[in-house]
Amino acid sequence: MICLCSLFRLTLILMHLLTLVKTKNDKGLVKLIVKPLTETFCFPPFAEKTRFQYPRDCGQIMLNGVKASGVYTIYINGNKVAPLKVSCDMDTDGGGWLVFQRRQNGGTNFFRPWADYEVGFGDPADEFWIGLAPLHALSSQARYELRVDLRDGGSTAYGYYARFHVGSNTTNYLLRLGPFLGNAGDSLMYHHGRVFSTPDKDNDGSLTNCAESYRGGWWYHNCHQSNLNGRYGDTSHSRGVNWYSWKGHSHSISFVEMKMRPLKLADLRNKRRRKHTQP
Ligand SMILES: [Ca+2]
C-alpha cells in the first residue's frame, strides 16, 4: 500500500518537472518559456488560448477565438471590476462588431430622458441603447469604425463610417465621424460635430426642441436626416425610425443595428487576406 508520505513526495516531484513551451507574443515572435509540468498539462485550455483575459470590446472577444454572435462580457479599458454585457455581431463583414443600439419590435420605449440615455437601457439580447457614457469610454479606447445595418420588408442596406467617436459628458457626447461608404446613402454625416439632445435636454441647433418633436434622443442639428432612436412604427413625418437617404422621413424602418469595431481589427484581417492571396 502506498503511504501518504510517498504520494506527497511524488506530487512534489511532478510539480518540479519543467517543460519547455513555445508561445507567440503580440508581435508574432516565437519564444520558448519554461513552465511547471502541472501548469502545462492541467490548465492549458484557458491559460494558453485566451489571449485577452479581460477583453475590452467584441474585437478582442473575436481574437480570443469566439466565432458566434451573441451576448458576451467585456471590460472597458480592461478594468476587471467593471464587467459589461454587450451584444457582439460576429457574422457581418468579418465580425468583431460591438452592437450598441438595436430596434426590432418596438417593445422598448426610446422616448426617454437624458439620465436614461446617459447610462443606457433595454436588453442587449433584444432592443437596447448601450448608453452615452459607455459609448464615450468604448470609443476612446482605440480608433473605431461605425456600421449601421438597416432591414425592412426583405431588403437590407448599410452605412459605414471610417471613424467613430463620442465625446465625454462635458461635450454633451459630441459625435465625430470619418468618411462614408455603403448602399443606404449617408444620413448621419449631417450630425457629425453635433451634440446629443433628449426631450428634457435641448442641445440642438433648432429654435424648437427636436428630441421632443421627433420622439427620441439623437445628435440633432436642425433637426435630422436620421432618427434611429425615434418612435418605432410611427410613419408621421420625421418621428419614426428614419434613415432619410434610404426610406425618407415618413417610413419607420423595422430593423436597425448600430455597431462599432476597432479599425486595427480590419487592418489585421486585410493583412492576412493579402498574405493569403499573394502568389
Ligand atoms: Ca432647440
From TrEMBL:
Keyword Disulfide bond part of the UniProt annotation: yes
Pfam family, one: Fibrinogen_C
Domain of life: Eukaryota
Claim: Signal is one of the keywords in the record: yes
Keywords: Disulfide bond, Signal
Domain Fibrinogen C-terminal: 49-264
CC per GO annotation: extracellular space
InterPro entries, sorted: Fibrinogen-like_C (IPR036056), Fibrinogen_a/b/g_C_1 (IPR014716), Fibrinogen_a/b/g_C_dom (IPR002181), Fibrinogen_C-term_domain (IPR050373), Fibrinogen_CS (IPR020837)
PANTHER family: FIBRINOGEN/TENASCIN/ANGIOPOEITIN, TENASCIN-R
Entry protein name: Fibrinogen C-terminal domain-containing protein
